[in-house]
Amino acid sequence: MADVTLYHWEPNANSGKPMLALMEKGVPFQSHYINMLEFDQHKPEYLAINPQGTIPAMTHGARVLTESTAIMEYVDEEFSGPELMPADAQDRWRIRWWMKFMDQWLGPSFSMIGWSTFVGPMVRQKPKEELEALIERIPLPERRRAWRKAMFGQFGEEELAESKRRVGFGIDRLEEELGKREYVGSDHYSLADINIFNSTYSLPLSHPHFASKERTPNIMRWLKTVYLRPAVQETWKMGKTDLAHRYSLIMEDI
Amino acid sequence: MATAILYHGEPNGPSLSVLAALAESGLDIECRSINLLKGERYTLPGAEQTLASDMAVEGEGPVLLKDGETMSEAVFLAQYFDDAAGSCGLQPKDAYAHWEMMMWCRQTTERLAPAVAYIGNLATSQSVVGAMDEAEFSAIAKSVFSDDLRERWQDLRDNRVDAAKLEDSKTKVAQFVERVEEKLADGREWLMGDFSIADLETFAWLRPMAALEAAAFKGKLRAAAWMERLEQRPCIKAALAHATVDDPSHAFAPGPEINRWG
Ligand SMILES: N[C@@H](CCC(=O)N[C@@H](CS)C(=O)NCC(=O)O)C(=O)O
């Protein structure tokens, strides 16, 4: 009996990581959808699970786990099913390196651009007092600042330009990496692919000038390979917005 | 292992934790001391694939050169030693304890390390980098591959101090000491129960703060006893023996950036 509950939003970025890892391992889990655009992640019920007020979080019996990349390593080690980390020590190191590069260098730039162009405008409709009250509830001070910028469109030109630079740079490095190896960091499908796929499958649509069949053939080859995995198909069905559907059209076209 | 060489700075921060992890693993890897504050990490002989050291999130840290590839990031190098040694006790075997160690280390590298690097560089390395002659500094700056890391070098040279970041860094150091104190509240000897990379990584970044941010440690008796236990541990002594200066806790070079998102 797995007895796993996952608190997640759409199958992308951080939420998508444990969703897809659980699917790949064949671990049944209860899905608890947290609507990020309704700020479910800052409601008392959820803060009781993860006081940081970020998603995802996972419970396994009495255990509560946070930090999406570390959750994936747990899922891989705790449950039987296909290995999602190769045996070679240097490959394992490389996989962890790429996941950190995504989580702590490239990912935040994706987030900033995504929040300024997509998330911000979606939540801006609400009255200002309501938005202020929503900000009040956010536990992490740095997140309070980020949400304020997103809600009121206050990202600076300089920081957005820096994020765009990083996205362009990061995509080029990923393209080189996938020219050297079949998958990210090794020749085996692994947690690094799950991690990075969840933050890059939207690229051909969101950043077509950076990622395209002509410009980044290796990334496109890899995106398509990962996309065709049954676990991805299953995971994408769990989305409640039309996000995954829109991207599946792009994938079919690659 | 004969083909691997560990290039490290003075045993402080990431170089301290990696040298200690290596000693703990018992692996026979040659160690060579380099001066990170002279940009020596960018001119390693035989380095062919350098993405991992050029773009290390942790900034100027140790590099393991293996088969032409420059391996970086202190926590992952420690995990690599543990994996390569066939589990030498640096990582818990139980999946949940292992998760907790990785979660803890992630938060150490994301919150504590940038704060310590900010405070430490200003306190100890600003005067050195600021006093370099133009030719020397621009040669180093030119060799730094990452644009944002180069900017941190330049900020240090120009003594550009962001008061809010400095304040925030001090708060984060104090919060982390508090967190260590709480973790040890049940009388455990090591952070994760058994000794692990979490102890090495946390200690390596907190050690230089004992003098620079003494107030953060005031009344934190369990944390102080834990620091002392580490200080006495043979792997830490072995790591500190690699120092080429009197007080390696003053050795800093531009480190990880302070979280620009959230
Ligand atoms: N380091 C955490 C970050 C989690 C995180 O920031 N998740 C985002 C969604 S991808 C979130 O919760 N955003 C909503 C918020 O901060 O209010 C992890 O990897 O799990």
From TrEMBL, chain A:
Matching entries from PROSITE patterns are given as: GST_CTER, GST_NTER
Give the signal sequence positions.
Answer: none
The UniProt record lists the GST C-terminal domain at 88-249
Question: Does the record bear Transferase in its keywords?
Answer: yes
Per the record, the domain of life is Bacteria
One family name in Pfam for this protein: GST_C
Name the InterPro entries on file: Glutathione-S-Trfase_C-like, Glutathione-S-Trfase_C_sf, Glutathione_S-Trfase, Glutathione_S-Trfase_N, GST_C, Thioredoxin-like_sf
Record's keyword terms, sorted: Transferase
Ranges for the GST N-terminal domain?
A: 2-83
Q: Does the keyword Cell inner membrane apply?
A: no
Task: Please list the GO terms describing molecular function.
Answer: transferase activity
**Which protein are we looking at?**
Glutathione S-transferase family protein
Q: Which species does this protein come from?
A: Altericroceibacterium indicum
Automatic annotation (TrEMBL), chain B:
**Could you tell me one molecular function GO term of this UniProt entry?**
transferase activity
Q: Which keywords label this protein?
A: Transferase
The GST N-terminal domain, residue ranges: 2-89
Q: Where is the GST C-terminal domain positioned along the sequence?
A: 94-258
Lineage top rank: taxon: Bacteria
The record's section on PANTHER family has: GLUTATHIONE S-TRANSFERASE GSTA, GLUTATHIONE S-TRANSFERASE-RELATED
Designated name of the protein? Glutathione S-transferase family protein
Q: What is the lineage of its organism?
A: Bacteria, Pseudomonadati, Pseudomonadota, Alphaproteobacteria, Sphingomonadales
